[in-house]
Amino acid sequence: MNDLITIVIILTIYLVISIGIGLYGRSKEDSAEDYFVASRKINPWILFCTLAATNFSAFFFLGFAGASYRGGWSFYSIMAMGTSLVGLSILLLGIPIHKLGKEKGYVTPPELIAGETNSKHLGWLYGIVLVVFTLPYLATQPMGAGILLETLSGGEITYFTGALLLTCVMIIYLVLGGMKSSAMTDVFQGILMFSILIIFVIGFFIHEDIGGFSEAGQSLWDNKPEKFLREESKLGPNDFTWKLLLSYTILWPITVPMFPQLFSRFYIAKDDKAIRTAAWLYPTVVPILFLFPVIIGVYGNIIDFDPTLVDQKSESDNILPLILTEYAPLWAGAIVCIGAIAAFMSTADSQILAMSSIITKDGLPAFTEVKEENEKQIGRFLIIILAIIGLMLAYDPPDTIFDIVSQAFAGLSVLFPTTVAVLYWKRVKANSCIISIIVGEILVGWSYWSAKTGNTIPDWFTQGFHFSTPVILITILTLWISTEIEERLANNSSS
Q: Which of 238, 263, 364, 366 reaches 20 to 30 Å from 209, CA-CA?
């Protein structure tokens, strides 16, 4: 009982501070633009912090550790290389999106796509894809909170109670504060999560049973040398080949800006300088931070856990809280748990706010007139609804955090060719974009259905790459070919 009281006290202090910062950060202005994009006044350092914190989620804390436990050091190559290229995509997309948003008053991603192509139908399709593939990613945040609190408390705090707690606190400061509160709490949560994680990793290696980094490395090499590098001929289902490494290296920079919570943050920047600062800070700082959960996952292999853990993918998401209960006193474990929950909340609040703005600004006007003065209240109501949907999806998760997020990444990557074309290719046609997105999402749906029915995606389609790679290539080709055909048909009819 004393252990539970310790966890509750530490957790309560953190949650109260989060709500307090969220309330302090809210703006005095009462417009929908202020609520959804913080009046476009966020400075460079806060922008970077909110971009980074928003991208660090249950996927970062639990999914990274679980995937690294199964696949070894090769997983870090995936994350480090792909993340380093995200800075380029921030420059490529962030600056024109920011300029167009400021010039034309765009608040949501579909608004920009529809406005620049003069096609409401393309805007609706774009928005539907964003919401459909962000919802399962959203569900991984309360999933993470539930896993951590249940494991750390020895089951006294149930999985669903932990998930519900995170959801309720997030609703409070989002409903009251909007984007500015989200950005301010992201800064606090980002600093907190990384400070705690770094201290935990150091504490893990100096533990008397581990014996330091050198001894731990020797133990890992002696017992699990395949976690460093494995011959091509001996690769197993948990390993990453060079083709998969290349696939994920391409997938991350293409998809990260497509998440609505990241896309929307390009609107909130004070100026171009803020975007450029975030673009060079992101690949400089983030790959270093990614190293810490990977270290925990890889070196978890030297600990005598259930030998079937490596094959049970859903269980490997528990590796970080399992190490906490084994090697940290309860109070320290609770503090690390707070850092992880900070990561979950910093992503979930941004996802919910972004989806709320999309439905308010792009979805509802297709069915009924929405007055500008009512947009803020509608957005607040939708925040509650979306948070509940995310909680319901988390109740019985269908897969590991890593696999759920990978599916979301694949679905959103289909939007990248259209986004780049709208921003940079004057010849692009709205109908071509629609065809391209539909073809891409049919392929993503086919791959998901194949996985759920126990079938494998044919080798002739993937050629050993992650299925997202051929999907992206086909999407690009479809966009280009359909644009050429549409242009020629238009020329023939005019002549």
A: 238
Q: Which of 75, 345, 296, 287 is nearest to 197 (CA)?
A: 296
Q: Do residues 370 and 107 touch, judged by C-beta distance below 8 A?
A: no
pLDDT above 80 (res 494): no
pLDDT above 80 (res 236): no
Q: What is the DSSP string of 353-411?
A: HHHHHHIIIIIGGGTS---GGGHHHHHHHHHHHHHHHHHHHHHS-SS-HHHHHHHHHHH
Chain Cα centroid distance, residue 442: 22
397-421 burial, b if ≥16 CB within 10 A, otherwise e? Answer: bebbbbbbbbbbbbbbbbbbbbbbb
Residue 224 has pLDDT above 70, yes or no: yes
Write down the residue that tokens 């999907």 correspond to: 471
pLDDT at position 439 over 80: yes
Q: How many CB atoms are located within 10 Å of the residue 206 CB?
A: 11
pLDDT at site 29: 52
Q: What is the pLDDT of residue 34?
A: 61
Structure tokens of 358? 């999309």
Residue carrying the six token digits 């690009």: 476
- In this prediction the pTM is 0.80
Measured between alpha carbons, how far is residue 172 from residues 21, 157, 388 in Å? 12, 21, 13
Say which amino acid occupies 55. N
Distances (CA, A) of 74 to 295, 306, 375: 11, 23, 47
Using CA atoms, how far residue 405 sits from 24, 63, 150, 298, 399, in Å, is: 32, 9, 22, 20, 10
Our CA angle for 265, 269, 271, nearest 5°, is 150
Q: What is the pLDDT of residue 419?
A: 95
Please name the residues in contact with 64: beta carbons below 8 A apart, sequence gap of 6 or more: 75, 79, 290, 293, 294, 297, 402
CA 168 – CA 33 distance, rounded (Å): 24
